Q: What sequence folds into this?
């Protein structure tokens, strides 16, 4: 029996009213600032999903560009770690992974194998799980040496920490921490988008709602202050996102910056102190590599020494990527790194929907349901229809 | 990795590190409590991400009243209450 119901925040009349407000605010702002175009970044892959799935780009003025940001952990997990996981699977280690990572293509094949899905086809024991808890239960049953690929952002880290610190993992299950921190990536992508020449300034950010349940809205204050732009922590219904856009424009018109919480039903200013405590008790902050991008300072988490017995890097000889060993790790011609940073749109990539599709991904942004290319491929992101029409000589 | 779904807490287990939750489709599963366990009670609506409870959702009625207020203001005084 279901207890849920259709969210009232999907009401089309509500979204339409907000869209009218957005258009009015944009015209006012554009006239006052002498702008024809401005950008707002939706950092999180799930926000990009809402924007594209519900066609919100068609509701905002033409000069207001919604730019997708790096909020897809699968897209930014370095190829090396996928290769290491493939190697472990081929060497007889049971590999537990989320479904999207399973299909993630590596740039350098390991014994001819390019993904964990292929590793399973080649005889490796690769098991898809929904959570670390599920992996722990399963690994306890068979007792064989196993590894869990701990991908994620701050949303995932405290739950991982709770199990690790609570001794809930069987001794045969090791943890490969690939957790990434979002504020450094937001800083980096906004810096990149500011580089000249730029076609339009990024004048606001829709901050990740669920990451903010953990880190709190206050985590975005440095972004708002450094870039002097409004940041709105938003929920994931269409009305949440449209309200966030309206709030950003309104604050720009008033000359106000700072951080606003639109997603008040889930996010507190200080986040969850308990989750933050768990996260930093289990993990230490490291400079980490982002796929296609390179090293970002203090942007990743690895297990602390107190949890060394679970650490797959030490226990299974998983090789870390280092600044000197890091190489650009997207396949030739793939523009995923630029898409992740909001510098390119999926339709700018020569592979998009040609030899890179959701069923046969060539680059990492086409794999996860949070990857911008996969979202645009499924729901027709802005420009896809016109691009196809141009290709077919219809426009 | 902001994907999360609402779920209802059916039972908080004794050591308070996990809870049995019911998803919107009626399926139940055990989820790790990533936040302060004292904030999670049976009957609460929570957000679950990758099998982990990351937040408790505030009661709908109050939230919707606040949202309606904000949206009405944002929408320039238009009455959108019938949409909420």
A:
């Amino acid at each position: 029996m279901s207890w849920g119901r259709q969210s009232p925040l999907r009401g089309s009349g509500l979204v339409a009213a907000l869209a009218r407000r957005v258009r009015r605010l944009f015209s006012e702002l554009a006239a006052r600032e002498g702008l024809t175009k401005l950008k707002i970044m939706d950092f999180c892959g799930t926000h990009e999903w809402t924007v594209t799935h519900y066609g919100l780009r068609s509701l905002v003025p033409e000069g207001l560009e919604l730019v997708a940001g790096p909020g897809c952990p699968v897209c930014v997990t370095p190829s090396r770690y996928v290769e290491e996981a493939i190697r472990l699977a081929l060497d007889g280690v049971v590999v537990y992974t989320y479904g999207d990572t399973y299909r993630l293509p590596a740039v350098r094949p390991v014994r001819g194998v390019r993904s964990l899905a292929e590793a399973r086809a080649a005889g490796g024991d690769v098991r898809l799980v929904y959570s670390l808890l599920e992996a722990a239960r399963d690994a306890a049953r068979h007792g064989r040496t196993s590894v869990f690929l701990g991908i994620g952002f701050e949303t995932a880290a405290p739950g991982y920490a709770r199990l690790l610190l609570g001794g809930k993992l069987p001794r045969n299950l090791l943890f490969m921490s690939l957790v990434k921190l979002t504020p450094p990536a937001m800083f980096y992508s906004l810096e990149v988008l500011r580089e000249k020449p730029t076609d339009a300034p990024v004048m606001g950010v829709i901050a990740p709602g669920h990451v903010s349940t953990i880190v709190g809205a206050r985590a975005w204050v440095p972004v708002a202050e450094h870039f002097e732009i409004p940041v709105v922590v938003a929920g994931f219904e269409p009305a949440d996102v449209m309200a966030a856009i309206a709030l950003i424009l309104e604050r720009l018109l008033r000359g106000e910056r700072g951080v606003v919480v639109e997603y008040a039903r889930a996010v507190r200013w200080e986040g969850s102190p308990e989750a933050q405590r768990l996260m930093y008790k289990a993990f230490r902050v490291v400079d980490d590599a982002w796929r296609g991008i390179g090293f970002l300072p203090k942007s990743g988490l690895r297990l602390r020494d107190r949890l060394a017995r679970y650490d797959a890097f030490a226990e299974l000889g998983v090789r870390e990527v280092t600044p000197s060993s890091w190489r650009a790790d997207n396949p030739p011609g793939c523009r995923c790194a630029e898409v992740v940073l909001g510098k390119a749109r999926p339709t700018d990539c020569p592979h998009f929907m040609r030899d890179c599709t959701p069923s046969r991904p060539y680059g990492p942004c086409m794999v996860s349901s949070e990857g911008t290319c996969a979202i645009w491929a499924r729901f027709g992101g802005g420009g896809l229809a016109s691009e196809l029409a141009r290709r077919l000589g219809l426009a | 990795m902001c994907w999360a779904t609402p779920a209802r807490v059916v039972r908080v287990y004794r050591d308070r590190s996990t809870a049995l939750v019911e998803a919107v489709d009626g399926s139940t599963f055990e989820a790790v409590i990533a936040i302060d366990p004292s904030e999670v009670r049976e009957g609460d609506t929570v957000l679950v991400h990758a099998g982990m409870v990351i937040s408790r959702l505030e009661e709908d009625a109050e939230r919707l009243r606040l949202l309606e207020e904000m949206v009405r203001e944002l929408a320039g005084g238009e009455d959108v209450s019938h949409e909420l």
